[in-house]
What does this fold into?
Amino acid sequence: MNGGCILAVGSVALDSVRTPFGSVKDALGGSATYFSASARFFSPVSLVAVVGEDFPKRYLERIRELGIRTEGLRVEKGRTFRWKGCYDYDLNTAKTLKTELNVFQSFKPVISRAQKNSRYVFLANIDPEIQLSVFRQMKNPRLTACDTMNYWIEHKKPVLKKLLKKVDIFLCNDSEARQLSSEFNLIQASRWIISCGPRLVVIKKGEHGVMCFSKDFIFLTPAYLLEKVFDPTGAGDTFAGGFIGYLSKTGRLDGGAVRQAVVYGSVLASYNVESFSLDRIAVLKSSQIQERYRQFKEMTRF
Amino acid sequence: MNGGCILAVGSVALDSVRTPFGSVKDALGGSATYFSASARFFSPVSLVAVVGEDFPKRYLERIRELGIRTEGLRVEKGRTFRWKGCYDYDLNTAKTLKTELNVFQSFKPVISRAQKNSRYVFLANIDPEIQLSVFRQMKNPRLTACDTMNYWIEHKKPVLKKLLKKVDIFLCNDSEARQLSSEFNLIQASRWIISCGPRLVVIKKGEHGVMCFSKDFIFLTPAYLLEKVFDPTGAGDTFAGGFIGYLSKTGRLDGGAVRQAVVYGSVLASYNVESFSLDRIAVLKSSQIQERYRQFKEMTRF
It folds into this structure.
């Protein structure tokens, strides 16, 4: 079966970012925003998140103009979630300067009747208890995926382990895989995670590429090589958007589809880091995704 | 034309290494040793190096048993070059505890009449003035390649730039490429290096794989993924041995051959890091190289 609506639950944020190439204040960001802006190239996406009353109207319009469904985007009393961070020339590591949770602190996603039937679900990095609460509301999704972060591994590992039992695909970065599994070697780390439940573990290594593990295969790929990386904020969620988006479009979950999905995710992420905020992927064309997919193949074939 | 004798100039050393998995004292090591032990799978290799009177006979026999020609391995009065280093769990970075140059300090490679006709020349990491002196002695090599290290970039950059004018292939790691070119981005760094002379730049990133640049193409590959990495000492030179070895065997220098050579180099390096010293590649079979090459393809195809 082809196609499938994707439900994306996570943050919509105002990001203030400084990189060696410039800076931006209160730009449109957030894990669910980046994911949706990327996944929309493949399937319809419904966004579930919360913003404050200060959330700029033009950002709301921007999200809608991308074709993302915003019935699940609630506006609550208070200020929008804000993240302030910076990057040095080693763009692989973000330094968080400030996090203001604001309305996001009491985020309790309520999934509408229509959304409960979504076949594909992505739970971006939020409190694993909230991720679990979304699971409980879903009817019978074909594929579920989640991301997490070091904070939850440190403070809510038991809840995270419950979540792992339910989720099909677990995405994280290399240090999170190591921290979660207490294994330094990434094959062993992924084996540990798979033993907890997921059928697929996707380890994102930023500029060093992606590793994808299942019980049946391992797929390794470098990152698409760019001459100019402008701002890596959102790269991981943009990757997830391309990855889940492609899987939902093909309707397949076999090794071949998963490998191609990893490359599509990498292509989307490579475009995202070329600008601040969503500036680049907002104007991206499908033909450009295909073109870079071909270049990716050319850069890695042997 | 198929086949071609390889001349390997560099160090033969006694290494004392500590990793999280064990330690070894005065083990057989050195850049030219690792290179030769790897390249011998593809073409005959002549080793040019110097050792002290203390160099164990059994190591000399070991080198010869691998089929490496040792007419160019001189024994001089004094002690053999020694390196002492250790690795933490992050096996990507060696910490040098002690370097004793000993007889290597006055190493002046004299290339015999027969060796001057070698078609393939690899100059492992040594003083670039010595590397240049070897160039001057060669008749008409088909392909020349060299490696270097941060120390020479810092202290002998003008000589290194003279060397770059003459060499066909320049191999280095990512931080050396950045240091040499003063460019952080590796596309820009490689472009700078290519503008100095080499037609090919091969950037080794350890566990993160290899990037290969020419004027016509870029080839990226992850490293072969291992469950257990025991000791990364010599991985870079073992890579170079597989890389140059394969090129010498095919006799081709086109993009297709270069891509395959990078993968063969990665396969050889992956075997090397499974043990201390040359223990693993000394007993390696050609069929095992082919087998891992196939697995490499399987791990990276999409």
Notes: The domain at 6-300 of chain A is CATH 3.40.1190.20 (UDP-N-acetylmuramoyl-L-alanine:D-glutamate ligase). DSSP finds eleven helices and 13 strands in chain A. The CA atoms of residues 84 and 98 of chain A lie 5 Å apart. The interface with chain B takes residues 89, 184-188, 205, 208-209, 211, 217-222, 225-229, 256, 259-260, 262-263, 297-302 of chain A (CB under 8 Å).
